[in-house]
Each structure stands twice: as structure tokens, then as C-alpha cells.
Amino acid sequence: MRHHQINLLQIEYFLAVARYLNFTEAAKSLYISQPALSKQIAILENEIGVQLLFRTRRSVRLTPAGAVLFQELDTIANQIENAIEKARQPVLAENSVLSIGCLEAMGTPFLPALIKEFRQHYPGIHLIFERHSFKPLREKFLRGEFDIIFTLEIEVKDTPDIIWDPFFVAEAYIFMSNNHPLAGRKNLKLEDLRDEGFVMISREEAPRSFDSAIALCRAHGFTPNIIKQMPNVESVLLSVESGIGVTLLDTSVRTIHADTFAGFAIPDEPIEVGMTYRKSNLNPAVALFANHFRDKTIGGTELDPNA
Hints:
This protein is α/β, with parallel strands linked by helices. It has helices spanning 8-20, 23-30, 34-48, 64-87, 111-121, 134-142, 153-156, 207-219, 233-241, 284-296; strands at 53-55, 60-62, 97-103, 126-132, 148-152, 162-177, 197-201, 225-230, 247-250, 261-278. Strand 3, helix 5 and strand 4 (126-132) form a beta-alpha-beta unit.
């Protein structure tokens, strides 16, 4: 199929002539000269390959092809005008719904203030929040059930058609029960845990995070002895809190009873945490939320994940 090189200006010129059926009047309405208008119509007819107008000294009439084109283009012109009017509305996303997902174990003390401000600016947007573990969060996002998710960069890295907005960098972190024999030792390092049993979130649930944890241990000279694989982070933490092994997670994890855990950060192992959404998502509330989020993080005051 041939692609026609037609521009919006030529369409506007044709619509004017079709409405007035008079080149002089049409040219006046367009604020151009009659010869310039005639030339553009001739170019349009040549490009399309059909005659659009019957011209005589006294009158101008639409050909059958011209009548069809006028009817179709007139509808499109109205749609364009309506679209422009909608774009001019002060609240683009009024009465829209914004669905937001978050990792179940991620600490999000920054969100309440962020959401409160956003709702004050855009009270007509209905917000829906859900927490999920790695796999369901990832799958729901890819199916389009969430407009936005808060997660680890490693979980969505290299996913096509997404925009990633970071908001803080966490650290790789060893969690153990505060009753663990190593809990009180000073200057503990990852390699000191080579003989410990590790409780991990299952590879099926979070393959990238699982493989990253294994690679980190190997970089420190050992392959971890994994004694349990759990379906979610909360189960991992419950096991470790109960004295069953140790685990390798990160400092974005929320620990409700932090005093029951001991642990240490692993230096030089940054884990980026942020917000992501699809480029192709046309929900206007997504752009509003993303811009508000950037104003409060990148463009404004950096959020403290532990605040």
C-alpha cells in the first residue's frame, strides 16, 4: 500500500474549499491567496491520484471522490478539535483510576506523605494499592493490571517498554535472629557465614534476586548452603526470626519487629529501588503521578527510605 505524503495544512485547505465551494471565500477564511490555495489543492489531488473538485469559471463542486474524502476528513477534524479541548482541561485525569503495586516486604514510610500531597492536588483520581510478592507483582504488572509498581531495579531491568524512576539505593544485608551465635560478633563479614544454613526466597518466585544472591556469595568465596526456599520474603523473615538459618536480602525490607533481628550491610553492593511504569500506558494519571514523584525525589528533596 502506498503511503501518501499529505500534511494537515493540505487537509485544512481542502476542508475549507469543500465547505465554501468557492476558492475566493475559502482563501479569505484561510488568510492566503487564491492562487496559493489552488496550487495546494492541485498538489493534494496529484498526491492522492484522483480529482476532488469540478471547477468552472462560475462554480466549484465536489467529485464523488471529493465528497467521500470530505465526509471522512471532516469527522477526523472534529475528533482532533475534541482531543485538543480535552488536552486543555485543567485536570486531565479527573475520575480516572490509578492502580499501584508494591513489593510485600518493602518498607514504604515515604509513601503516605507522597500520596497525601498527590490526593490534595488531584482529588478526582481514585488510587488503588496492593502488596504482592515478587512473582505476582511482576506478572500483574506485565499483564497491565498495575499502572505503576514499586520494586527493585533487578526485577524489571531490561524489560522493554518501561520507564524506571529510582528513589533510593539500598544495600545488600544479612539478616539473622538476634539470638544467633554470630549476632554479637563485631566486624562480621559475608564470608564468615560460609558454614551457615541460608533461607532464601525461591528461585521460581524471584529468579533474578535469587541468582544475584548466589553470585554475591560466590564472589565472597563460597556457595551458600540453602536449607529452605520460601514463597515470599515475609516467610523468609519469619524463619530467620525463629532461628532457622540466616538470609541475604537488602535494606529496603521492612522488619516489623526489628529488635528481634541482627545483621550487617555488605559494602559496595548497591541495590536500586524505585518506581516503574510502561511507556505505552496512556492513563493520564500515570504521567501526573510520575511527575509528582519526580518532583519529590529527583527534582526536590530526596526521600529517606528510613524516615
